[in-house]
Every structure is written in C-alpha cells, then in structure tokens.
From TrEMBL:
PROSITE patterns on file: GLUTAREDOXIN_2, THIOREDOXIN_2
Segments forming domain Thioredoxin: 1-110
Gene transcribed to yield this protein: SMKI05G2580
Protein known as: Thioredoxin domain-containing protein
Acidic residues biased stretches: 127-144
Organism: Saccharomyces mikatae IFO 1815
C-alpha cells in the first residue's frame, strides 16, 4: 500500500517521528463526503507509485475521524496537503490540484512524479471543471451549467465559492469569510470561481447574488460576507443551526 491510511494517533506519531528518518512526509487530509477528495485519493495513489518510497511517505488522514490531528494542523478545508520534512512544515496545498501536487513533490523530493499527472488516474473535480478550453465552456448550455451548479453547491455540507483558495485567497472578502469559517471551526469545501468563468457568471444568476464570495450550507444559498456576518451577530450559533 503506497498511501498509508492513518487509523489512530499512535500510528500517526510513529510514521511522522520514529520512522520518519529523513523522509518527506506528505499528509493528505480528506473526508468521505467531499467529492474532490474521492477523486484526489485515486490520483494520489497513482502519484505515490511514481516516486521513490525511500524518500517520500504518504499518509492519508480522514479529517472527521481524527479531529485531534486535524485540529493540530488547523485544517478547515479538504482536500488539504501538508508537506513535512525533518519535523518542519515546508509546504501546504489547499484544494484538488494534481499538477501543483506533482510540482511540489518534484521540488521537495528531487524525484519525478510527472508521469502520474500526465498518464494515469482520474482528474480531480477541480481539474475536470477547469480543464476545458474557453471555446468548450461557451458551448455549455444553460441546462448543463445549472445541472453542474446543483452538484457543486451540494459537494460539501458547507460549500464556499470564492476567489482563490483558502490558503491563497485572491480578494479581501474571500479572505475574511475563510477566516470566519476557521474561527468557528467549520470544515468546508470550496470552489475557485476564477478558474471557471462559466461557474463564475452562472452562479450569480443561480444564487440571485451578484458578488463573491458566496456560501452554501446543505445546498442552500446563505449569502455573501456581509450577510454571514449579520447572521452570526443575530445568532452566535448560526452555523450549528444552519447545518441541522
């Protein structure tokens, strides 16, 4: 098994300390409910077969089953990758981006994992949604994009449509909403609307809301940054109630 599934704290400690030696440790935080994680798990299996196992170790951590590990690394969005070398975090990646994962592995381990990205395994949800040319995107009908949006807003119990990623927000409003979710310890999925103009433009009509970020809970539109702030002011347990 090239990717080790963490089952308990003792196992995690052993793999990241006693047995770590000089290995690059790749911590992959995922959940069973997030569709991008399902695809990325398959991609990671392929990538892990392409690198030197003497130099790199891949550990998969279910964020819901191991909150003590997840909280230690302050993980609030999945999928999420943490690269650890000699006990130090050297890189973090938020989101399902096989190309970025391969790039980091090659830079940090000195190995080559590019064939895994090019030849094998399914694309991640993010890559599938963003890999088409602009010409292909223009051919997507309103019915098709609406069907895709219905799936996207339900991809996670809490779904954030933002500019950039939680680790690298591309606007102040997105950064603030990510901060609010993390402050309230809410795990969430996200979609970078800058990578898909069809989603960016169509979601405005779909949500009947002209700006981003936009937050969905259980498939229902909640609002943008100001609305979420107001909702929390009115009800400090807003997220808990909305998730019921």
């Amino acid at each position: 098994m090239t990717v080790v599934e963490i089952t308990n704290q003792d196992q995690f400690t052993q793999f990241t300390t006693t047995d770590a030696a000089n290995k690059l440790i790749v911590l992959y935080f995922q959940t069973q409910w997030a569709d991008p994680c399902k695809n990325m798990s398959q991609v990671l299996e392929v990538i892990s077969e392409e690198v030197n196992q003497k130099d790199v170790r891949f550990l998969s951590i279910d964020a819901d089953k191991h909150p003590e590990i997840t909280d230690h690394f302050e993980i609030t969005a999945v999928p999420y990758f943490v690269f650890v070398q000699n006990g130090t975090i050297v890189k973090e990646i938020s989101g399902a981006d096989p190309k970025e994962l391969v790039k980091c592995l090659e830079a940090l381990s000195g190995g080559s994992a590019s064939s895994a990205n090019n030849n094998k395994g399914p694309k991640s949800t993010s890559e599938e949604e963003n890999s088409g040319s602009s010409e292909d995107e223009e051919e997507e009908t309103e019915e098709e994009i609406n069907a895709r949006l219905v799936k996207l807003v339900q991809a996670a119990p809490v779904m954030l449509f933002m500019k950039g990623s939680p680790s690298e927000p591309k606007c102040g409003f997105s950064r603030q909403l990510v901060g609010i979710l993390r402050e309230h310890q809410i795990r969430f999925g996200f979609f970078d609307i800058l990578r898909d103009d069809n989603v960016r433009q169509s979601l405005k009509k779909f949500s009947d809301w002209p700006t981003f970020p936009q937050l969905y809970i259980n498939g229902e539109f909640q609002g943008g940054l100001d609305i979420i702030k107001e909702s929390i002011e009115e009800d400090p347990e807003y997220f808990q109630h909305a998730l019921q």
